[in-house]
Task: structure prediction
Amino acid sequence: MAVLEHTSRTYRPSERIEQLRARALNQGPELFQDAWRRAYLYLEGWMGASQVSKLTIPKLEPECSAQPLPLRNAEALGHVIECMPVRLYPGELLVGQHSNGGDSLNFRAELGENYLQRFEDCPLSDEERENLERWVAAEPFAWQRLAPVAPMPREMRLAEQHGAITVWGTDLNHSIRAYDKVLRLGFSGLRAEVEERLAGLSPADPQAPHARANLLAWQRLCVAAMTLGPRHAAEARRRARLARKPERKREWEAIAEVCERVPNHPARTFREALQALWFAHMITAWEDGVNANGIGRIDQFLWPYLEQDLAEGRLDWDQAAELLAALWCKLYQTYDVQQMMIGGQTPEGEDATNPLSYLVLDVTEGLGFVRCLSARLHRRTPREFVARCVDLLAHGGGIPFFFNDEALIPA
Result:
């Protein structure tokens, strides 16, 4: 088999991956030990009370309630990104931990005394508890109870009453982020895009104030995100200095080198791409929880990195499977709807199935736990790919889900 050809092969997890898999399946308290800290930091940033930022752009003024909503939310999330503890564990290939489970505390979704009840068993200091009580008393998210700007048309209201339609929506989760841009540009590149747009805003544009608020918010988040890699790299370097075994020292140094590159700069290798993807997904989980926040078409945006690594001899298929399995272990939740998609078509209508599509199925089968996965099918989907998907489905667990391009794309 040529180095770039891959259809299907048996994947058997290594001892390292078995240990990571056991840790993921156990869902022990160490995975979620900082969930309360994320929630506290978010509210601290939202209230304009954070004093820790190293950013070069202006912080919110003390009277934060006068700030536009995008800036308040960016300050809250940026503060979380900058201040969440760095947790590294032996044996990891990809590092970083968001500490959010399927029922993670989301301040914007829960109001009033519920905050205080859920913080009862958290190791807050007396000062932090006083802060929390004062902030909650100010009802920081009362704006969510405001009525919609426009009333629902009578016809729609009647249709809903008779069960013909359902009108409902949420700004929480159920999203797919452009992770491919993080891999391709890095947060430094994304920041440059934002700042170019900022510089080009025309004061004559009636939408300029709204655009400026959003762009400043994105700038804030890009700069905050650029602290993630260096903070994890510094901890990995510290672990390397303390390591007694040469192989462990090399592992920590390799992790540090990856984190010194991503997510600030464009990924160059499959491992860098996976680490950048995981860092970006951590930010999503810090903002919005793990519920229904999808990964996207993973075989499409990751294959170019793996293809180049294979062609230049940096990786073989077994090493690639090991890295992909490490991501699966990072993503695993008992309640897991962090959807990812494989197969389907290119924008030009050609079949998009590639060798990574098959590797995704192999790794999912080999790990033996349910990892939210879908496959897009169409008339030109290779029969071998369909059969491989059905083989995995036959193991139980209901994955992959199937989506019909022939119906969904025209719709």
Residues 19 and 52 are 36 Å apart (CA to CA). Strands lie at 175-176, 293-294, 296-297, 340-343, 373-377, 401-404.
